């Protein structure tokens, strides 16, 4: 295998769900398939970049030429992301990170009891991985691309997320549309990015995730201010 051209940035991508243990046999998670993040990793590698994929538990093969680090929890994903991001040129947060985890995972299997019909779990907030990458000092900060899954007012909520998380670009999609997004092979998106005039946007119509991934990678790479050595 030929090494990636030296001008290509190191691209770090988070993908898939995270899994937060409740006890030794149960966890909190979500339906993220990881397909979009894996398609982005495959595409970035095909476009000549060195790619590291930080992946939650998914049923997908590692794309050709991509280095993969497997994690389960948001805390593990956060640790790997904050270790790699300061040396990367482009960071893409595509993972569906669990917003909360159990305050403490039970050491033994939680037992069903006869005296109550309810069970209360105490959850604590997980770190916001992409916001922490965005907050890295300027000389360590990669170009940061996030994703936003919305069910209404896609542009407005995405722009708000772009600002609140301090991102450079966001890929927003309407997850209420049948046959698109979560678990599907197709996706449509609105790309928003910071420009000299404020926020610019571009609409990407419904298309296979592989094709959309190529568009997103090309677009993000074209916006990189300068390619820092990786
Ligand atoms: O706030 P929300 O989860 O909608 O934001 C989605 C974006 O933030 C995605 O890019 C996702 O990967 C990232 N994210 C993260 N860490 C979290 C929550 C979301 O990196 N704890």
TrEMBL record:
Cofactor(s) listed: FMN; Mg(2+)
Keywords carried by this UniProt record: Decarboxylase, Flavoprotein, FMN, Ligase, Lyase, Magnesium, Metal-binding, Multifunctional enzyme
UniProt remark on cofactor binding: Binds 1 FMN per subunit.
Enzyme Commission designation: 4.1.1.36, 6.3.2.5
Molecular function terms, GO-annotated: ligase activity
Ranges in a coiled coil: none
Catalysed reactions listed for this entry: (R)-4'-phosphopantothenate + L-cysteine + CTP = N-[(R)-4-phosphopantothenoyl]-L-cysteine + CMP + diphosphate + H(+); N-[(R)-4-phosphopantothenoyl]-L-cysteine + H(+) = (R)-4'-phosphopantetheine + CO2
Residues at which CTP binds: 93-95, 99, 109, 127-130, 147, 161, 165
UniProt entry tagged with the keyword Mitochondrion: no
Pathway: Cofactor biosynthesis; coenzyme A biosynthesis; CoA from (R)-pantothenate: step 2/5; Cofactor biosynthesis; coenzyme A biosynthesis; CoA from (R)-pantothenate: step 3/5
Region (Phosphopantothenate--cysteine ligase): 11-230
Entry superkingdom: Bacteria
Domain DNA/pantothenate metabolism flavoprotein C-terminal: 10-220
Family as reported in the entry's similarity comment: In the C-terminal section; belongs to the PPC synthetase family. In the N-terminal section; belongs to the HFCD (homo-oligomeric flavin containing Cys decarboxylase) superfamily.
Biological role: Catalyzes two sequential steps in the biosynthesis of coenzyme A. In the first step cysteine is conjugated to 4'-phosphopantothenate to form 4-phosphopantothenoylcysteine. In the second step the latter compound is decarboxylated to form 4'-phosphopantotheine. Catalyzes two steps in the biosynthesis of coenzyme A. In the first step cysteine is conjugated to 4'-phosphopantothenate to form 4-phosphopantothenoylcysteine, in the latter compound is decarboxylated to form 4'-phosphopantotheine.
Identification of the protein by name: Coenzyme A biosynthesis bifunctional protein CoaBC
């Amino acid at each position: 295998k030929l090494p990636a051209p030296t001008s290509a940035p190191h691209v770090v991508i988070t993908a898939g769900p995270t899994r937060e243990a409740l006890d030794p046999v149960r966890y909190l998670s979500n339906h993220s398939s990881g397909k979009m993040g894996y398609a982005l990793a495959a595409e970035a590698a095909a476009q000549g970049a060195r790619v590291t994929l930080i992946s939650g538990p998914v049923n997908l093969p590692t794309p050709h030429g991509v280095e993969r680090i497997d994690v389960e929890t948001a805390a593990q994903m956060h640790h790997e992301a904050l270790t790699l991001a300061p040396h990367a040129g482009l960071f893409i947060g595509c993972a569906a990170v669990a917003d909360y985890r159990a305050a403490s995972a039970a050491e033994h299997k939680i037992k069903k009891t006869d005296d109550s019909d309810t069970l209360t779990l105490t959850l604590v907030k997980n770190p916001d991985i992409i916001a922490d990458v965005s907050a890295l000092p300027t000389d360590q900060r990669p170009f940061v691309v996030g994703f936003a899954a919305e069910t209404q007012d896609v542009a407005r909520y995405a722009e708000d997320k772009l600002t609140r998380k301090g991102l450079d670009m966001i890929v927003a999609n309407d997850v209420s549309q049948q046959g698109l997004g979560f678990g599907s092979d197709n996706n449509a998106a609105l790309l928003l990015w910071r420009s000299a005039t404020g926020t610019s946007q571009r609409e990407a119509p419904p298309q296979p995730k592989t094709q959309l991934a190529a568009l997103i990678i090309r677009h993000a790479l074209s916006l990189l201010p300068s390619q820092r050595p990786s």
